[in-house]
Design brief:
280 residues; mainly alpha; two-stranded antiparallel sheet; 6 helices; 51% helix; flat
């Protein structure tokens, strides 16, 4: 018995050592696998792009004329809002890495950002114009660009979706849109003309021009709804069509109210008519 025991222990040690080596090897392999996936996983197992880049916009402050004291508070408030809009767009750029098709960044981030900046820049120009010459051409500063970094060059998130993700986008991709497959529905917006007070003769041309623009905006949004069937994630229609449409309508409605307010009481609460809905 005393002679057999060392031999048995020797075999046992060899077996345990081999098992440990296999376990260690598996751990090392797993470690390498995890290390290799670190830059590709967003914590949910979904593959994401390494770097989405950053959004940069033309500086508005440096292009302004002398700001009257009476307009300074409103101008400063809107200049701060322009910075906030860029920060929000950059955050969204990071949060949506890998989503949508090749035009996702342009349609869902840069486009809506431009619309918001147009409305804000117009408010700045209007504020200055109340007591001084209204600055012209500031709308040219509204468009922003994507400074690409990593694999997001070209203005769009270019991750290739899996077959399952693609099927999900086509079957239920657009919120409130029945998946935006087949019948896409139409966009319906509150009527602005019927909510206006009596329009002074001096404002009629500008009011009519902006009312016509409101109709054009709806037509363009409906065309885009048809042309983007199956694109984007679950919030594509809200983010890339209804959201930008609301921003455009807000700017047009503000111009209507301002033009009436020059020679009569400025109508209040018209901005509540800016939001539109998707009707199946």
């Amino acid at each position: 018995m005393s002679r057999a025991l060392p031999k048995y222990n020797k075999r046992r040690v060899t077996f345990i050592g081999g098992a440990a080596a296999v376990a260690l090897s598996g751990t090392v392999i797993a470690g390498f696998a995890l290390a290799g996936e670190t830059s590709k996983n967003n914590g949910t197992g979904a593959r994401t792009l390494a770097s989405p880049g950053t959004i940069t916009c033309p500086d508005v402050r440096s292009k302004l004329p002398a700001v009257p004291a009476s307009a300074k508070a409103e101008v400063d408030r809107n200049l701060a809002l322009l910075n906030t809009q860029i920060q929000e767009a950059n955050k969204r750029l990071v949060d949506t890495v890998g989503q949508g098709g090749p035009n996702f960044v342009n349609n869902a981030i840069l486009g809506p950002l431009k619309d918001k900046r147009v409305a804000t820049v117009n408010r700045i120009a209007t504020a200055i114009g109340r007591t001084a010459a209204k600055p012209q051409g500031l709308d040219a500063l509204a468009a922003c660009t994507l400074n690409a970094a990593g694999t997001n060059a070209g203005g769009g998130a270019k991750a290739t979706p899996s077959a399952k993700a693609t099927a999900g986008q086509q079957a239920g991709g657009n919120t409130g849109n029945g998946g935006n497959a087949g019948r896409v529905g139409t966009i319906s917006c509150p009527d602005v003309r019927s909510k206006l007070p009596a329009v002074p003769a001096s404002a009629k041309a500008e009011v009519d021009r902006n009312l016509a623009l409101l109709n054009t905006q709806i037509q363009e949004a409906n065309t885009r709804l048809v042309n983007t069937v199956g694109q984007g994630g679950p919030n594509f229609v809200n983010n890339a069509i209804l959201g930008p449409l609301k921003d455009k309508r807000t700017a047009a409605i503000e111009r209507i109210a301002i033009s009436i307010g020059r020679t009569a009481a400025k109508p209040q609460g018209l901005n509540s008519l800016a939001a539109c809905t998707l009707v199946k």
